[in-house]
Amino acid sequence: MTAPRRPLPAWAEIAMLPLVNIALAFIVVGVIVAIIGVDPFHALRLLVVGALGSSESIGYTLYYATNFTFTGLAVAVAFHAGLFNIGGEGQAYIGGLGCGLAVLALDRWLPAWLLAPLAIAASALFGAAWAAVPAWAQAWRGSHIVITTIMFNFVASALMVYLMVNVLIAPGSMTPQSRTFAPSGRIPAMHDALQAIGISVAPSALNLTIVLAVLCCAAVWVFLWHTPWGYALRTMGHNPEAAVYAGTNLRRMTMLAMCLSGGLAGFVGVNELMGVHHRIVLDFPAGYGFAGIAVALMGRNHPLGIMLAALLFGALQQGGAELAFEIPSITREMVVVIQGLIILFSGALAHLPRPWLQVLFARRA
User: Fold this and answer.
1) pTM of the full predicted structure?
2) Beta-carbon contacts of residue 235 (< 8 Å; ≥ 6 apart)
């Protein structure tokens, strides 16, 4: 009879296990790339250079990582409460709608320093309101949060199509998009902000919304681990019966967790609409809400881990685009396969290398 395996050290659980999962995913990707006739090491070099090889590439990597951070945090907050929020895509969509409506209504009257906080608050409010409906359905009617949130993604998409085609479309435009925001309704680009202090970098989509993403990571960490509400929320996720025994109102905590989750997802609209497009457009979430699930899983639902996972997915997004451009036989679909394998090894197969690592640490001990 074999002796029971010892648990992994905390640092190995948080850092080494995800890195091993990523390495296994890249090994499988390398085999697939070799099968289609491409040198895996050459493809890897192009991927890394495309993501980190220039200031422009780094800017786009960080721009994508900003969106992944928002949606990863959104999934993590709900998950800590024992809720699986699949509706980040729709909440980002409606959050962007709130952000855009605030800018369209006020950009001709308010200065940027006053309009930006109002638009950011509107994006959080609309995203939270969209998440509050499934939360209420689960808390008071027993509806399953997974079903309601994923269905609300389709409702949000249909609602946005209707509004953009029939209500918010710019006068005389044949494209379903709103009028361009006035300069006061735009988030400054990072290369412009750095240029103001004497640092010259290549233009990219990166903007100051990344500061908001970092602040959100810090705020989520403080809320979950250093406030009574955060403690009650995590208790509900680990053991609802114990939370009830301690006096926690599960209905209110469900509403709180989902509203915070929806508000965080809504910030994607700030990055996309105020930071890049400077108007309301269709399909701006572009799958960030669903990718946020993988980001949260890889980051172990901790803000620091989510930031690192978001950087990885941002690098894959940017580097994958460059890879598909340089090697025609590697299409955009192949890049999606790479992301899918990382999600597979970080999610469904997250514990596959655990016995090997436990044996390794046992031998060292």
Assistant:
1) 0.92
2) 242, 243, 246, 248
Q: Residues 78, 261: contact at Cβ < 8 Å?
A: yes
3-state secondary structure of 171: coil
pLDDT digits (tens, 9 = 90+) for 108-122: 999 999 999 999 999
- b/e 3-40 (16+ beta carbons within 10 angstroms → b): eeeeebeeebebebbbebbbebbbeebbeebeeeebeb
**Residue 355: burial class (beta carbons within 10 Å; 0-12, 13-18, 19+):** exposed
pLDDT tens track for 68-80: 999 999 999 999 9
Query: What residue spans define the domains of the chain?
Result: 67-307
**Residue 279: how many CB atoms within 10 A of its CB?**
21
- Asked whether the CA dihedral 308, 314, 317, 320 is positive or negative, the reply is negative
| Residue 83 CA, distance from chain mean position | 17
